[in-house]
Amino acid sequence: MNINIQSNQSDECCVLREKKRHLVPGHASRITHRASAFTLVEMLLVVTIIGILAALVIPRIAGTSERARKQAVFADINGGIKSALGAYEVDMGFYPKSLQELLTPPSNARNWHGPYLERLPVDPWGNPYIYYYPGKHTASSYDLLSVGPDGKEGTDDDLGNWMQ
Question: What is the C-alpha separation between 5 and 47, in angstroms, rounded?
């Protein structure tokens, strides 16, 4: 704010009053100060609301990631690995004894046109897939399974190609 001081005495009086009014804290300046700050009650209310929202949202997010891992297992079992096993079976006339035969030819390989996979697959939990031929659940075919998050075969969290 520019204040021009002139030599006129009546103007000086007005300028001094203008300065006094701005220098002395008044009622209006206290209202402005209050409006620009948050009270403790308002802060506690916001923290409480954020806590309630976090308690509702976090369990849903955690459940979603586990469900996505299970979907990834079934995509592997019914997608890439199944295709590789099928291509091997078409070329050789039978399924491989182990998943390793999808990468390196077995000793009796006459029509082997692999490798059928780039590397041995692992499930989303970092465990290798388990393969049985003939299968325990499907005797005329193979069993392909993930041991799930616990890493132990034969528990309730195992996921296999017979579980469709």
Answer: 52
Instruction: Identify the burial level of 88 via C-beta atoms within 10 angstroms of its C-beta, where 0-12 means exposed, 13-18 middle and 19 or more buried.
Output: buried
**Residue 73 exposure: Cα atoms within 13 Å on the Cβ side:** 28
Q: Categorize the per-residue pLDDT at 157 as very low, low, confident or very high, splitting at 50, 70 and 90.
A: confident
- Residues 6 or more apart whose CB falls under 8 angstroms from that of 127 comprise 146, 147, 151
Tokens 């996921």 found at: 159
Specify the pTM: 0.61
Domains belonging to the chain, first-starting first, are 71-160 (3.30.700.10)
**Hey, what are 66's tokens?**
């586990």
Buried b (16+ CB within 10 A) or exposed e, 133-148: bebeeeeebbbbbbbb
Task: Assess contact for 128 and 122: CB atoms under 8 A.
Answer: yes
Give pLDDT tens digits for 34-54: 557 889 888 889 999 998 888
Give the DSSP H or E segment for 119. none
